[in-house]
Amino acid sequence: MFLLSNFPQANHLAAPAAALCSKMMKNRNWVFFTFLSFSLVAAGCGSAVDSAPPETVETQQAVAEPAPPAEPVPDPTPEIPNLQAEISDSRFRETASPLGSYDFLNHTYPLPRGWQNPDGSDIRLENGKVAAVSGTVSDDMSEDEKAEARAERRIGMSHVVTKYFDATGDGQDEAIVILKIETAGNAIPQVIYVYTWKEDKPDLLWHFRTGDRTDGGLKDIRPENGQLVIELYGQDRYMLGEVETGKITGDEAQLCCPSHFTRSSYKWNGRHFIRQGDRLTFSMSDPSSPPLKNYGDIVNNPKNQQNKGKRS
Q: How far is CA 117 from CA 44, 50, 133, 137, in A?
């Protein structure tokens, strides 16, 4: 058997070699344990990432994506007001006067200035209405034919309501007949007739026309403190004889939807209804605000117009 002990030089080298081997073994164990620890940490991190619930990623994607813009909601269409509500309500529908039994649905009425037939004739309602005659002309007609067609034109009318109350302050009811002028459109100009009972028949005291809706249309008519109160849509609109006054400067409300109305009062003097007191313009959007007195006198005053121009 070959033994290192048979060589003295080998014994001299064996001690250092054994020490070196022992140190290498210790270093190998340290490397092994270091590698093993690193592997365990790496495995733990990988397990943490792999074990993340899939919904966490989806939630992050959902947050990252911007929400689609909301579709605009259109404004609701404003409701068109019933401008005939007050004159067509149930007030003043009955009376003890003989006027209450008179047939105003079949009656002859004069026409006010501005709404007259070409020949100046009156109109007669039959069952509460009379049809209009247009008297249409065309380019292929001669001048005589055109003139004849125009002469045949007639105003159409229909009965709206008849009310009964004391309009003159004498303690006796009058009949207030409201007729609508037929225009074959949306316009509702009207004519109002005030009758008293005299010599066993209706006697006409006053008749007048009103405008179309916001443009001086009739809002209400009623008795108050022995006088006749008339309310017209628009700013400072009131009656002058048989016709309503025109628009004042700055009255620009839409025809369907008035922003103001005017209240004026009239007193019977035995021959005519005479306007009394101030003309009061009320705001319909702010009923609690005080009325404007004689507003047209202010805005149409030339001095105020000049001052307005200087300020602008």
A: 105, 97, 10, 17
CB 238 within 8 A of CB 230: yes
The pair of structure tokens assigned to 80 is: 């068109």
Per residue in 2-25, pLDDT (tens digit) is 444 444 444 444 444 445 445 444
Helix or strand or coil: residue 78? coil
Contact 101, 235 (CB under 8 A): no
Q: How far apart are CA 191 and CA 220, in angstroms?
A: 13
Structure tokens belonging to residue 265? 């009062």
Q: Which of 140, 161, 158, 160 is nearest to 149 (CA)?
A: 140
Sketch the domain layout of the chain as residue ranges: 98-311
Nearest CA-CA partner of 152 in 167, 168, 130, 136: 136
Largest Cα–Cα distance in the chain?
A: 173
The residues, any chain, with a CB within 8 Å of residue 58's CB and separated by 6 or more, are none
What's the predicted TM-score (pTM) here?
0.72
DSSP string, 26-66: HHHHHHHHHHHHHHHHHHHHHHHHHTS-HHHHHHHHHHHSP
How far, in Å, CA of 176 to CA of 100, rounded? Answer: 11
Going from the C-alpha of 180 to that of each of 24, 144, 255, the distances in angstroms are: 122, 32, 17
For residue 174, give the amino acid letter. E
